[in-house]
Amino acid sequence: MSDLDKIKQPVKDHIREFEKYFRASMKSNVPLLDRVTRYIVRRKGKQMRPLFVFLSAEIAGGIKDATYRGASLVELLHTATLVHDDVVDDSNERRGYFSINALWKNKIAVLVGDFLLSKGLLLSLENDDFELLKIVSNAVKEMSEGELLQIEKARRLDIEEDIYYRIIRKKTASLIASCCACGAYSASSDLVIAEKMRLFGEKVGMAFQIKDDLFDYQKANSTGKPSGIDIRDKKMTLPLIYLLNKSGRNEKRTIINVIKNHSTDPDKVAWLIRQVVDSGGIDYAREKMMEYRSEALEILYTFKDSPARQSMADLVVFTTERNK
């Protein structure tokens, strides 16, 4: 049994039931739409988002029908944003599968994204789940703002640390925060508990994204060298921002020149990675990740002890110690 399977134990039956519920929530009378949505269901990942929803609900008072609707709402709206993202990025692949736009072209992909968005809205409105809709809609708004803020700042490639935190809080942490808030509210109908779980999820999301930043500097299995993918994509991650902050004006100019003009040159990228490592950027990012993880666990431990709380704590550790 994998670590993630062990973590799922307190809610595994609910997650299995949720899969059927989610499939039903995407049903349509249009055969083409049904074909596309069946493909979307088939390529599901680790189910981290539903896991956060169901564990949060269990911690906050127990899983109810509204929890299934909250988890479906998160998945529908988030899947819609992913389908649209692939069109925007002209991406042909997601998680090792062909993207919707690669198989059915952009027009159909955009329309499918719109369909999923409307299904999520209707699912909430038909059941008067206004608070759940508010929580998830706010997360989608934050994610869009985060993406646009990153695009705006990436042009200069000189992002300050506080701007970086603002971007990842909106882009990544807001989604995990909405999962936890949805789960907690679906179980308790208590806005104070939901806000506490939202804040917990935000801290986890911040740690999760910093962990993603660190992957770029880990050894790649096949080559034995760090991947440098974020550098090639001109992404300003925390270890790189730390290096820039520690550098003088001339060094800073050289680093930015490498990112802007030589990000596909393996030797220049290897040089830049060595600079990041030597500056202490990796250790600094890891330290910040652990700070967010500790803050998240501190909030979690204010809830009553239970198997679900233990699983959630294990999930927090898993997100910061995963190797992919």
Describe the secondary structure blueprint for this structure.
Layout: H1 3-8, H2 12-25, H3 31-42, H4 48-60, H5 65-88, E1 93-94, E2 97-98, H6 100-126, H7 130-154, H8 161-188, H9 191-215, H10 229-232, H11 238-246, H12 249-261, H13 266-279, H14 281-300, H15 307-321
Antiparallel strand pairs: 1-2
Helix pairs in contact: 2-5, 4-5, 4-8, 4-15, 5-6, 5-7, 5-8, 7-8, 8-9, 9-14, 9-15, 11-13, 11-14, 14-15
What does this structure look like?
The structure is a single chain. The longest helix is centred in the middle third of the chain and has 28 residues, at 161-188. The chain has a two-stranded antiparallel ribbon with strand order 1-2. The chain has 15 helices and 2 strands. The chain starts with a helix and ends with a helix. The protein has helices at residues 3-8, 12-25, 31-42, 48-60, 65-88, 100-126, 130-154, 161-188, 191-215, 229-232, 238-246, 249-261, 266-279, 281-300, 307-321; strands spanning 93-94, 97-98. A hairpin with a 2-residue loop joins β1 (93-94) and β2 (97-98). It has a domain at 3-194 and 294-319: Farnesyl Diphosphate Synthase. With 324 residues, the protein is mainly α. 77% of the residues lie in helices and 1% in strands. α8 (161-188) crosses α9 (191-215).
